[in-house]
């Protein structure tokens, strides 16, 4: 399920210190982009952010929840997006800190894949 309009607007406001935050529907979910780089996904108004080997230790609190996943040929495939703890929505500065770490991971993933990490904006919703 995609992010509600209210939740999407809340995220854009909260994550504004990172840069231009946009949302785009994809795979039945909502992708969260900053300056064209996908740092997170929302499903059922729950924010999941990009995690990789460099920032995994900082996200151990998020590891208590299963990562975002999808079903493929009868198997569950975990994605590198971990659920943000609910308490962060009451701590805007810490939410931005987590999002900044997720954005750094998203840039590393994009660099590995040979994609530009700036200059390409997504749907400006």
TrEMBL record:
Domain TfoX N-terminal as annotated: residue spans: 13-106
Transmembrane segment boundaries: none
Listed SUPFAM superfamilies: YgaC/TfoX-N like (SSF159894)
Phylogenetic lineage: Bacteria, Pseudomonadati, Pseudomonadota, Alphaproteobacteria, Acetobacterales
Annotated Pfam families: TfoX_N
Domain of life from the UniProt record: Bacteria
InterPro entries: TfoX-like, TfoX_N
PANTHER family xref list: PROTEIN SXY (PTHR36121)
Protein name: TfoX/Sxy family protein
């Amino acid at each position: 399920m995609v992010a509600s309009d209210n939740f999407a607007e809340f995220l854009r406001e909260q994550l504004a210190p990172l840069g231009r935050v946009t949302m785009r529907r994809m795979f039945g979910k909502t992708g969260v982009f900053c300056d064209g780089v996908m740092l997170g996904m929302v499903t059922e108004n729950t924010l999941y952010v990009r995690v990789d080997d460099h920032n995994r230790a900082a996200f151990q609190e998020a590891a208590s929840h299963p990562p975002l996943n999808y079903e493929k040929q009868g198997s569950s495939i975990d994605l590198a997006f971990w659920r943000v703890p609910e308490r962060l929505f009451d701590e805007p500065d810490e939410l931005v800190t987590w999002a900044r770490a997720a954005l750094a991971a998203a840039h590393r993933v994009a660099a590995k894949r040979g994609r530009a990490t700036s200059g390409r904006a997504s749907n400006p919703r």
